[in-house]
Amino acid sequence: MSIDFTVPADLEALRDRVRSFVADRIVPYERDPRLTQHGPDDDLRAELVELARAEKLLTVQAPVEFGGLGLSHVEQAVVYEAAGWSTLGPVAMNCAAPDEGNMFLLGKVADPEQIDRFLMPVIRGEQRSVFAMTEPGGAGSDPNQLTTEAVFDGENFVINGRKWLITGADGAKTWIIMARVAPNPHVPAGPSLFLADGDTPGIVIERVMNTMDRNYVGGHAVVRFENLTLPRSAVLGTTGEALRYAQLRLAPARLTHCMRWLGAAARAQSIAVDYARTRTAFGRPIGEHEGVSFMLADNEVALHQCRLTIWHTCWLMDSGDRARHESSMAKSYVSEELFKVADRCVQVLGGIGISDETVVEMIFRDMRAFRLYDGPTEVHKFAIGRHLLRE
Ligand SMILES: Cc1cc2nc3c(=O)[nH]c(=O)nc-3n(C[C@H](O)[C@H](O)[C@H](O)COP(=O)(O)OP(=O)(O)OC[C@H]3O[C@@H](n4cnc5c(N)ncnc54)[C@H](O)[C@@H]3O)c2cc1C
């Protein structure tokens, strides 16, 4: 087994290009009024996407056959951390959630016709996608509680149910919908994934929820499926296999969250370090007080540990390992640690830490949700514990 942490020269060059692009071109948009309470609006997103396209930095992670650079998981870790310096960086580069995970899933499971219709426009940055699983009172931490039902009559599926917390639903065109196929004589029953165009009658956006984060395009919506009628060709993969496909999507998707938030936490740390260097109290820069330097040191240790955890899990996945256990450890550890980093940065900044004088306040609020989605910390620890008992 070889262990080599060298970043190859071509990857280093790509990372540096992404760093400059995000710092110089994207950061100024953080004060744009089109960054609303419900995330960047579609107009802002389109403008950012065009900037990335012009720099050949759009959807670089996509497989080569779909026009991307076919980045490995480790390569994504390096590039997404650089993109995450601004929460708008991944939006511009089309590697933000949920599109990034959805593109990955569709690339693995969709058939050629579905790829043309539902995946390629997302890869080209022309339309957005959603993954609709979570339900009020139904699927959540435990996806087996899925209640949305698809009834197959031999020709069409008729879907009824209600979902919430569906990121980007308002305005998205490519929909991946999880529903339970009722027992029938034609196809396997059970949790299944369906593809639909966002304009299909029967998809109803009830409202966009008011949440504490604002980094996802379109925010998070409550949606209803009201006799949504889809043909047999709308099935993604095979009926009855949704939970397996969701796992396929989730392990890499939860890691890419870690990568992007690592970049955001590093940004918060750099702002806190600058402040600690220049702000004085009791006769010296505050960074020279041990209480502050220890907070900054704890941050530096956490950032380093998180990076190593992410890189190791990526390395396993690049070696063909599904790394489910390791990705659970990474997601639970990184989300908790990075949130503590952001919290300490707020503290170092004193009163302005809770104001929008710096971006640290937004990073802190946005990052809070990271401990919940793609598996709350406790659910990952529950899985890690079960894995240990099985071993
Ligand atoms: C910002 C954001 C974006 C999201 N985007 C999407 C999306 O695009 N599509 C989508 O389908 N969903 C999305 N979600 C939903 C997300 O996947 C769920 O919030 C998550 O799966 C948890 O489900 P729940 O909210 O129903 O929590 P619940 O299932 O109600 O759980 C509540 C709490 O119970 C505890 N808990 C649960 N199980 C265990 C256990 N086994 N052991 C110990 N404690 C436990 C945890 O602390 C958990 O936080 C999003 C959520 C957020 C916050």
From TrEMBL:
Residues 131-213 form the Acyl-CoA oxidase/dehydrogenase middle domain. Keywords: FAD, Flavoprotein, Oxidoreductase. It comes from the Bacteria. Residues 10-126 form the Acyl-CoA dehydrogenase/oxidase N-terminal domain. InterPro entries: Acyl-CoA_dehydrogenase, Acyl-CoA_Oxase/DH_mid-dom, Acyl-CoA_Oxase/DH_mid-dom_sf, AcylCo_DH-like_C, AcylCo_DH/oxidase_C, AcylCoA_DH/ox_N, AcylCoA_DH/ox_N_sf, AcylCoA_DH/oxidase_NM_dom_sf. SUPFAM superfamilies: Acyl-CoA dehydrogenase C-terminal domain-like (SSF47203), Acyl-CoA dehydrogenase NM domain-like (SSF56645). Its cofactor is FAD. One of its GO terms (molecular function) is oxidoreductase activity. This is Acyl-CoA dehydrogenase family protein. It comes from Nocardia thailandica. The lineage of its organism: Bacteria, Bacillati, Actinomycetota, Actinomycetes, Mycobacteriales.
